[in-house]
Structure formats: structure tokens, C-alpha cells
Amino acid sequence: MAPDTSASPSPASPSPDTAVRVAIGADHAGFALKHHLVVTLGDLGFDVIDLGTDSEESVDYPPICAAVGREVVEGRADRGIVLGGSGQGEQIAANKVDGVRAALCNDLFTARLSREHNDANVLSMGGRIVAFGLADEILKLWLDTPFEGGRHQRRIDQITAIEES
């Protein structure tokens, strides 16, 4: 079977010429993981847009997650990351922004499929669920996995049509 050429490009690892921009945001429960991932992303050569929060003081996550989603949809970021205690609420909030396809990925299998099949553009993880080492693996896999396109593109188009109706 011939390779599908309709797949969207993956930011993958940045090249020396073009740094990939990643917007990231977290509530208080995801703050420690966000701080860790900001360092990881920087070490990997990504440009990071940190949208907060900046401490473990209690804060509501919906505005932060929506801001991350808007950065991606409006083209100021290539991908987004939202973090909280479980990642569930953060994923839901980000997905309220038209054009966001946020995926909760607390394991490697889900991270890979969220990119290959769903062209997820925002990654959500739970800071109270995922340890730093696993979070690094999930992040790298998610950033490096391209969208397969093909039959999956048809489904993404249907999701977009639902948003527009």
C-alpha cells in the first residue's frame, strides 16, 4: 500500500532553522509537572510559551486551558499542553475552543494514537497521575508522532463540521 501523503506535518524535533512553539499551561495541581516540562521542552530546543500558573496556590484551570488552546488555533503555537491534577478537566476546557483537539494522555499508547489517528494538537496530562520520567516520554512521543491522515482525516473533517454547525 502506498504511503498516505495527506498527513499533516508533525512539529517533531525542532530543526536549527525553525524552532517549534509549544504553549503550556497548568493549574496549581499541574504546576510542578509544568515547571518540569518547561525545562524539558527548552532542553529539547522548543520555544515555550508559558501561560501559567506560576505557583501551587489554588487557581481555576478553565481560562488557562482556553488560553493554551487559542494560542494553537490562532497559530501563535504549533502545539499545546495543559496540565492539572488528573488532566480531565483541563482536556475538557481546552476542547471548548473551536479547532482544539485535546487528548488526555497519561500513557504512551494513548499519546501515540492521539497523534496518529486524531491529530491531537493539545496534550493533557495529570500531574497527580504521571511521574516526571513518564511525562517526558509521553511528551517526546506525542511531539514526534505524525498524523497518519487517510481515513483518519475524514473523521477529523467530520469533527470540524460538528464544530461549525
Report on this model:
The protein is of the alpha/beta class and 165 residues long. The protein has a single domain (21-164), classed as Sugar-phosphate isomerase, RpiB/LacA/LacB (Ribose 5-phosphate Isomerase B, Chain: A, 3-Layer(aba) Sandwich), CATH 3.40.1400.10. The chain is 41% helix and 15% strand. It has helices at 31-43, 62-73, 88-94, 108-116, 132-144, 151-164; strands at residues 21-26, 47-50, 79-84, 102-104, 122-126. A five-stranded parallel β-sheet has the order 2-1-3-5-4, with helices on both faces. The longest helix is centred in the C-terminal third of the chain and has 14 residues, at 151-164. The chain starts with 20 loop residues before the first strand and ends with a helix.
Summarize the structure.
The chain is α/β, with parallel strands linked by helices and 165 residues long.
Task: Describe the SSE topology.
Blueprint (H helix, E strand, L loop, with lengths): L20 E6 L4 H13 L3 E4 L11 H12 L5 E6 L3 H7 L7 E3 L3 H9 L5 E5 L5 H13 L6 H14 L1
Parallel strand pairs: 1-2, 1-3, 3-5, 4-5
Key features of this structure:
single chain; 165 residues; alpha/beta; Ribose 5-phosphate Isomerase B, Chain: A; five-stranded parallel sheet; 5 strands; 15% strand; disordered N terminus
